[in-house]
Amino acid sequence: MDITQLDTPSLLLDVDKMEANIKRIDSFAKEQGIAWRPHIKTHKSVEIAKRQVASGACGITVAKVAEAEVMARGGITNILIAYPLASRKKLERVAELLPLATIILTIDSAEQAQHVQAFFQQIGQDIEVWIKVDSGLKRCGVDPGEPTLRLAQHVSENCPNLRLRGLYTHAGHSYAASTYEQIEKIGRYEGECIVASAELCEQHGIPIEVRSVGSTPTFQIAGKVPGITEVRPGNAVFYDAIQVGLGVASYSDCALRLISTVVSQRATERLVFDTGSKSLSLDQGAHGNATVKGFGHVVDHPEIVLERLSEEHGIAAIQGRTTLGLLDRVQIIPNHACTVMNLFDQVYLVKNDEVIGTWPVDARGKVQ
């Protein structure tokens, strides 16, 4: 059916744009001779994860055990949990997935490593682990260089059930950059600090096979650093208004859109859409990004700025004149595709404004 037959708000996925974005990542990885392991927090879809793997991805990245459960039970067989786990309950859930998939765990401190070691020693199993390195985000991770070496030595010498195979980092602070030159600087350091830390470990007899970097704004920069073996972009499967603001994508690359209806208007002062914070989210950039204007980009209507969101209302200012009125429909490119995808049960698949099917958002709400 035509998209005009959909009720609003509905979430639309342009399949051709998504496939082009996936192909772009795969082509970059092939050109560099490296692997790619997309973060599925963006789409939370088993079908999209399968398409990424079929297009060349070596596996996927998740943030939470619940996401890993959905993906492993959906047939994905190589999963990095990019989040430090220590509680027994979560480790028990990880162990239940090992017959289904290779699960890779994150280590970012000696104390946490001991919790993971004690659990897997008790159940008599080994598990692959990677050390998380902080390349500047100041979130999880150990500092590069000597601190990384000391943690690698601790794991190698004191944790016989943990098979240390890689180092990885995420330069999420690139989202706070105000110029592309800053993104380039962050990306180069992201790659260089991982390579230098890996080489330091190897000088001390600890082999580091995987040197992995992430972040959609920086993966094509950090991924070119000699010695990097893997990139982990997540948002690049869709792109969004934040990526456009950062200069790493254009609106024509953005595969995810909301279709919305004007439900109220006040002369030439404002319009109200039926897309509030429960469909667009209040996200304007988690790490200080200031490049976005409002709470979503209204396609083909630069005079409309979504200035405020309440739960079910998107209140837009009219800057100049507009042709939009009551019951008119628009498409809105979200600021942050990852948070918006997590608000919907399903996404409508679109080609040339025709709805060709739906996919469930399988891992929606999987935050444990």
Automatic annotation (TrEMBL):
Location of the D-serine dehydratase-like domain: 255-351
Key words, A-Z: Lyase
SMART domains (alphabetical): D-ser_dehydrat
Species annotation: Brevibacillus choshinensis
Annotated protein name in UniProt: D-TA family PLP-dependent enzyme
Family classification: Belongs to the DSD1 family.
PANTHER family according to UniProt: D-SERINE DEHYDRATASE, ZGC:162816-RELATED
Residues making up the signal peptide according to the UniProt record: none
